[in-house]
């Protein structure tokens, strides 16, 4: 039976941070499902940098259907979890169904890949305390407040938790996550 990977996201997720791991994990042979607050067509965004701006800009990105609502997810059916960034984590961290899902993955030490603003979700369940992580650099203080040691690096691996700063770090992020996955949940 093919191992299944769950991606949790919502509207305003960064397009590349959802679709790159989705395609890369499928290419590797995993079955990948996207869960959101409800089953619907999600509207992703594109974050990019413009000369003279102090922070990133946001433009409409791709749309993509959610396979499942958070309330339909059985975490026991999944070998690993991917948490994309964008603005989605800002509001998703308030969803009690999603917090139950996240807690289940951390309680069972399953592989988790998080990127950009995704660690806001793991911070919401106290999943970062005592861990080493990276995230979008503007979240350094948030990560420290969550009890993590922040490292400004392409990718940080702490046990089964694999973190990256943002979409420019995809290659390193997925390479390290696949190393963890192949050890904990190989494709059969």
UniProtKB/TrEMBL annotation:
<dbReference type="InterPro" id="IPR006286">
    <property type="entry name" value="C56_PfpI-like"/>
</dbReference>
<feature type="domain" description="DJ-1/PfpI">
    <location>
        <begin position="4"/>
        <end position="178"/>
    </location>
</feature>
<protein>
    <submittedName>
        <fullName>DJ-1/PfpI family protein</fullName>
    </submittedName>
</protein>
<dbReference type="InterPro" id="IPR002818">
    <property type="entry name" value="DJ-1/PfpI"/>
</dbReference>
<dbReference type="InterPro" id="IPR029062">
    <property type="entry name" value="Class_I_gatase-like"/>
</dbReference>
<comment type="similarity">
    <text>Belongs to the peptidase C56 family.</text>
</comment>
<dbReference type="Pfam" id="PF01965">
    <property type="entry name" value="DJ-1_PfpI"/>
</dbReference>
């Amino acid at each position: 039976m093919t191992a299944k990977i769950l991606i949790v996201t919502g509207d305003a997720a960064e397009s590349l941070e959802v679709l790159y791991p989705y395609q890369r994990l499928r290419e590797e042979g995993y079955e990948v499902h996207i869960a959101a607050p409800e089953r619907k067509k999600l509207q992703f965004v594109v974050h990019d940098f413009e000369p003279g701006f102090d922070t990133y800009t946001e433009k409409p990105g791709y749309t993509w259907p959610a396979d499942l609502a958070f309330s339909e997810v059985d975490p026991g059916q999944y070998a690993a979890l991917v948490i994309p960034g964008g603005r989605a984590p800002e509001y998703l961290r308030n969803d009690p169904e999603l917090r139950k899902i996240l807690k289940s993955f951390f309680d069972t030490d399953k592989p988790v890949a998080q990127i950009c603003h995704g660690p806001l979700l793991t911070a919401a369940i106290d999943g970062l305390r005592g861990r080493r992580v990276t995230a979008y650099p503007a979240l350094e203080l948030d990560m420290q407040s969550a009890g993590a040691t922040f490292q400004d690096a392409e990718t940080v691996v702490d046990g089964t938790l694999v973190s990256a700063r943002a979409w420019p770090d995809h290659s390193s992020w997925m390479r390290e996550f696949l190393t963890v996955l192949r050890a904990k949940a190989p494709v059969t």
